Amino acid sequence: MGGVIPGAETTILAPLRERIDAIDVALVDLFAERVRIVREVIDVKEQHEIPARLPDRVEAVVARVRAHAEAKTCPPDLAEAVWRTVIEWTIAFEEQHMAHSTKPTK
Question: Of all residues in the chain, what percent carry a pLDDT higher than 70?
C-alpha cells in the first residue's frame, strides 16, 4: 500500500503552506487598508446623511467581484461568499460607528 510516511506531509507541503501563509498576510494587510478607507467612507456618509446599507451598491460590488473571479479562474461562488461576508461586516461596522458619532448641531 502506497502513501506518505506519517509526518512527511508536513515536509512535503511546507513550501506550499509558506506561500499560502504569505498570501494570508497580504490579505490581512489589504483588509487593514480597506478598514482605513471605510472609516473615511463613514465620515462622508455622516456628512451627507447617506445610510450604511446601499443595496444597489452591494449587488454591483458582488457582480463585479464574481466577474473578476471568473476571469481569474477563481470560483465565483467563493468570491461572492467572501465578499458578502466582508460587505455585511462593513455595513455593521459603519452602522455601529455612525450610531455612536456625535454630529455637531447647526
Answer: 92
C-alpha cell at 80: 461572492
What pTM was estimated for this model as a whole? Answer: 0.84
Is residue 11 within 8 A of residue 64, CB to CB? The reply is no
CA quadruple 77, 63, 79, 21: dihedral, nearest 10: 170
- Report DSSP letters for 50-65, one per residue: --S--HHHHHHHHHHH
Question: How far apart, in whole angstroms, are the C-alpha atoms of residue 45 and residue 70?
Answer: 32
The pLDDT of 87-105, averaged and rounded, is 85
| Grid cell for residue 34 | 480597506
What are the cell numbers at 36?
482605513
- In angstroms, rounded to a whole number, what is the distance separating the alpha carbons of residues 98 and 106? 18
Query: With contact defined as beta carbons under 8 Å apart, do 33 and 76 qualify?
Result: no
- Rounded CA separation 65/18 (Å): 26
